[in-house]
């Protein structure tokens, strides 16, 4: 199965982008080649760019507080496990405290490192990190893998409170949705959304054996999925086959 997620607002869009970057970073750092660690460093800079939004930290803290208050209202409910509730609230508290103690924006401490910032200023230029442009960076890439990995782990330490907060919030959001099977007649599916309820995320899960790509659109009143097929040259063309897929709306 192949999962696609569609955010309904800018806040969730930013969170998904950051989660995507942290996932990439987590795959690159354990690898050993210098080129993998080069792209790990480039990913750190991308995370800093996305996290530079002034209100991101405060928005995440408010969301964590809101979820905690909502979950605390379930205390004493006989149908709710107190142990499970305490565990979830504990995760929220840990994420909140870590993010709240972070000085400034995520990765802000790295901006004081002139060597890193010299790489950041050139890494987006095609070929801009060649050895004649950044000889010190070239020397770093020749260091033993353990030293390079230790440096990377030290640099990402200031980003981890952000990663933890994202993991908790997106996990709570995804868990709030109930997946169900739907049919797209002729490759198209539409669903009206109930008034008075605000959805933040739509998840579409397709059978990976079928070469289908969903074109998703949505707003507070309706969601739409059009299934496309990719030809040999990569062009997308509408599918006309009746197709079943899994849909989850997360509020």
Protein described:
By secondary structure, this protein is of the alpha+beta class. The protein is built from eight helices and eight strands; from the N terminus they run βααααααααβββββββ. It has helices spanning 10-28, 34-50, 56-72, 82-100, 114-123, 135-141, 145-156, 160-175, and strands at 2-7, 180-184, 188-192, 201-206, 212-218, 222-230, 236-238, 243-250.
The total of beta strands comes to 8
* Number of helical regions: 8
**How would you classify the quaternary structure?**
single chain
Dominant shape:
globular
Key words describing this protein structure:
251 residues, alpha+beta, 8 strands, globular
How are the elements arranged and paired?
Elements: E1 2-7, H1 10-28, H2 34-50, H3 56-72, H4 82-100, H5 114-123, H6 135-141, H7 145-156, H8 160-175, E2 180-184, E3 188-192, E4 201-206, E5 212-218, E6 222-230, E7 236-238, E8 243-250
Antiparallel strand pairs: 1-4, 2-8, 3-6, 4-8, 5-6, 6-7
Helix pairs in contact: 1-2, 1-8, 2-7, 3-4, 3-8, 4-8
Short recap of the structure:
The protein has helices at 10-28, 34-50, 56-72, 82-100, 114-123, 135-141, 145-156, 160-175, and strands at 2-7, 180-184, 188-192, 201-206, 212-218, 222-230, 236-238, 243-250. With 251 residues, it is α+β, with helices and mostly antiparallel strands.
């Amino acid at each position: 199965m192949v999962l696609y997620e569609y955010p309904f607002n800018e806040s969730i869009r930013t969170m998904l982008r950051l989660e995507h970057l942290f996932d990439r970073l987590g795959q690159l750092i354990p690898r050993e080649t210098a080129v993998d660690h080069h792209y790990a460093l480039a990913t750190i800079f991308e995370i800093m760019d996305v996290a530079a939004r002034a209100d991101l930290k405060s928005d995440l803290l408010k969301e964590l507080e809101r979820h905690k208050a909502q979950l605390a209202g379930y205390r004493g409910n006989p149908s709710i496990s107190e142990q499970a509730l305490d565990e979830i609230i504990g995760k929220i508290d840990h994420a909140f405290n870590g993010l709240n103690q972070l000085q400034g924006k995520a990765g802000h401490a790295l901006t004081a490192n002139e060597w890193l910032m010299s790489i950041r200023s050139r890494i987006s230029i095609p070929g801009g990190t060649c050895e004649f442009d950044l000889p010190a960076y070239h020397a770093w890439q020749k260091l033993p893998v353990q030293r390079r990995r230790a440096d990377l782990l030290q640099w990402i330490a200031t980003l981890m409170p952000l990663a933890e907060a994202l993991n908790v919030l997106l996990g709570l959001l995804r868990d709030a949705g109930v997946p169900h099977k739907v049919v797209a007649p002729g490759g198209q599916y539409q669903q009206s959304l109930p008034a008075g309820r605000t959805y933040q995320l739509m998840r579409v899960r397709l059978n990976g054996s079928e070469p289908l790509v969903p074109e998703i659109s949505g707003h507070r009143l309706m969601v739409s999925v059009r299934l496309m097929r990719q030809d040999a040259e990569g062009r997308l063309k509408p599918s006309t086959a009746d197709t079943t897929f899994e849909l989850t709306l997360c509020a």
